From TrEMBL, chain A:
The chain crosses the membrane at residues 62-83, 95-116, 122-143, 188-208, 220-245. InterPro entries: MetI-like (IPR000515), MetI-like_sf (IPR035906). GO terms for biological process: cellular response to sulfur starvation; transmembrane transport. It comes from the Bacteria. This is ABC transporter permease subunit. It comes from Methylobacterium soli. It is a multi-pass membrane protein.
Automatic annotation (TrEMBL), chain B:
SUPFAM superfamilies: P-loop containing nucleoside triphosphate hydrolases. The keyword ATP-binding applies. Residues 13-240 form the ABC transporter domain. One of its GO terms (molecular function) is ATP hydrolysis activity. SMART domains: AAA. Belongs to the ABC transporter superfamily. This is ABC transporter ATP-binding protein. Pfam families: ABC_tran. InterPro entries: AAA+_ATPase, ABC_transporter-like_ATP-bd, ABC_transporter-like_CS, ABC_transporter_ATP-bind, P-loop_NTPase, Sigma_54_int_dom_ATP-bd_1. Keywords: ATP-binding, Nucleotide-binding, Transport.
Length: 250, 257
């Protein structure tokens, strides 16, 4: 009952929002070229699909997104584990981390283009950097805060090597914290996708830039919503995966 | 079972001392401790909290290093886990189902997954929890968790079972049930058990021999042998008498020190 009511309210809110959006340009309060009414979007969407532009852009962006996420998250988890496990490694990297961490991912764009050219690998690089720090700090913190009592259990049963400590205790115990970092990274990576592609690497971001220079704002909005939908899809799938991985929690 | 002449003790602790250094001050916890445990013996160590009981077990299992002295083991040669420890708080791994918690210690033993599961299931049956194999630890009561911890320790087939106040967090009903169960398990497996508690009644109920650890630094202040048949009648006159004697020793020692 309560669930039904909140669902109805949510639907009503969305409808009101769309109605307001539709009304603004239609009533002449805003130039339709600046803000296309939502009713024009399905046509724009179908046009992009029939031209084959939409699938191509989405596939390109998705591949940047997935590869960038995998590279950044992989490096973040790997180095985060090392840094969380070994104090000397943490000490050795402490100032390097302090130096590099504050540099925003987008500040790497010039180097990405110089090193990789206007190529998918440049986009992957930018996305990976954005993801890396989030996952690195989440992993390091999660490993650092693993209950020492559980590590003792492993030692008491003869698992004394760093590798067995990692596999038997640290990794499973740190999983909840690592997953929180990954989920944040999932959102962060979409921003990086757009940013990277705006500089010309083919994909959703590049198509948005083209459309906006032609003042085809309906197409811009189609891709904005496309990204919102893709993010929603990934986030929902991730939350389901997270729930399954952490099914041992109360 | 008590020590027979000629038997080498399964654990022989000689002149064991342990101190923690902290900020330049030396905090001596155990000093010059001698203790031997006979094969198959149920030895209970009692002592006030903070006297070093856990520290002694931690030395034996290798979680703490003594400052001096030695520990000689006469356990099976080449055994990966000659001893296993049951902690005061069960310390189950929350991300493993009950059966996989019990199988934990077997993972270094070169057994197949199926063999580990079989062994774990057997141990769960021994502690009466065969039905809960598929549960997560958070779905268990405190007493059930402690049983799982006992099964996990027994699964590695240790020569000596070390138990650190394993029942102290439980209500008295559950505690007495587990005390009976532990005696039954010992009768069945013939394990050597080194059991630590601060509860004198628990000590006399379980022990073949009770050792009182007292003072700071901790040393052995008294010893009582209980050659009574099992299963024991709880609060039988002989046990009450032994408990009174131990209480007197404990208060005398703490007054002295
Ligand atoms: N890692 C440690 N560093 C410093 N002091 C410790 C450490 N572990 C235990 N102690 C001290 O050693 C003493 C004995 O502790 P413990 O063996 O746990 O006592 P018990 O188990 O008999 O209650 C306590 O005073 C405790 O504060
Ligand atoms: Mg203790």
């Amino acid at each position: 009952m309560r669930y039904l009511r909140s669902t109805l309210l949510a639907a009503a809110g969305l409808i009101a929002f769309l109605g307001f959006w539709e009304a603004m340009p239609r009533l002449g309060l805003i130039n339709p070229a600046f803000l296309p009414p939502p009713s024009t979007l399905p046509a724009a969407f179908l046009r992009e699909i029939s031209l084959g532009i939409w699938p191509e852009a989405v596939v390109a962006s998705l591949s940047h997104y997935i590869v960038g996420l995998a590279v950044g998250a992989g490096a973040g988890i790997g180095l985060g584990l090392l840094s969380g496990m070994f104090r000397p490694f943490e000490a050795f990297t402490a100032w390097i981390v302090r130096l590099l961490r504050p540099i925003p991912g987008l500040a790497w764009v010039p180097f990405a283009i110089i090193w990789f050219g206007v190529q998918p690998s440049a986009a992957v690089f930018i996305i990976a950097i954005g993801v890396f720090w989030i996952v690195f700090f989440a992993t390091q913190g999660a490993v650092r805060h693993v209950d020492r009592d559980l590590i003792e259990v492993a030692q008491a049963f003869g698992f004394r090597s760093p590798l067995s400590r990692l596999v038997k205790i640290l990794l499973p115990a740190a999983t909840p914290g690592i997953l929180v970092g990954l989920r944040t990274a999932l959102g962060q990576a979409w921003m990086a996708v757009v940013a990277a592609e705006i500089f010309g690497v083919p994909g959703v971001g590049q198509r948005m830039m083209q459309a906006s220079s032609l003042l085809s704002t309906d197409i811009v909005v189609v891709y904005m919503l496309t990204m919102a939908a893709l993010y929603g899809l990934f986030d929902t799938a991730f939350v389901a995966l997270q729930g399954w991985l952490l099914r041992w929690r109360a | 079972m008590t020590e027979r002449p000629g038997d080498t003790p399964i654990i022989d602790i000689r002149a064991l001392s342990l101190a923690y250094e902290r900020g330049g001050t030396r905090n001596v916890i155990l000093s010059n401790l001698d203790l031997s445990i006979a094969r198959g013996e149920f030895l209970v160590i009692v002592g006030e909290s903070g006297v070093g009981k856990s520290t002694l077990l931690r030395v034996l299992i290798g979680l703490a290093k003594p400052s001096s002295g030695r520990v000689r083991l006469d356990t099976r040669p080449g055994c990966r886990t000659p001893m296993a420890l049951v902690f005061q708080d069960a310390r189950l791994l929350p991300w493993r189902r009950v059966v996989d918690n019990v199988a934990f210690g077997l993972e270094g033993a070169g057994l197949s997954r199926a063999a580990r599961r079989t062994k774990a299931t057997e141990m769960l049956a021994l502690v009466g929890l065969a039905d809960l194999a598929g549960r997560w630890p958070h779905q268990l009561s405190g007493g059930q968790r402690q049983r799982v911890a006992i099964a996990r320790a027994l699964a590695v087939e240790p020569d000596v079972l070390l138990m650190d106040e394993p029942f102290s967090a439980l209500d008295s009903f559950t505690r007495e049930g587990l005390q009976d169960e532990l005696q039954r398990i010992q009768a069945k497996t013939g394990k050597t058990i080194l059991f630590v508690t601060h509860d004198i009644d628990e000590a006399v109920t379980l022990a073949d021999r009770v050792v009182v650890l007292a003072g700071s630094p901790g040393r052995i202040a008294a010893e009582v042998r209980l050659d009574l048949s099992r299963p024991r009648q709880r609060r039988a006159p002989a046990l009450t008498e032994a408990a009174r004697h131990l209480r007197a020793e404990l208060s005398r020692r703490s007054a002295e020190l």
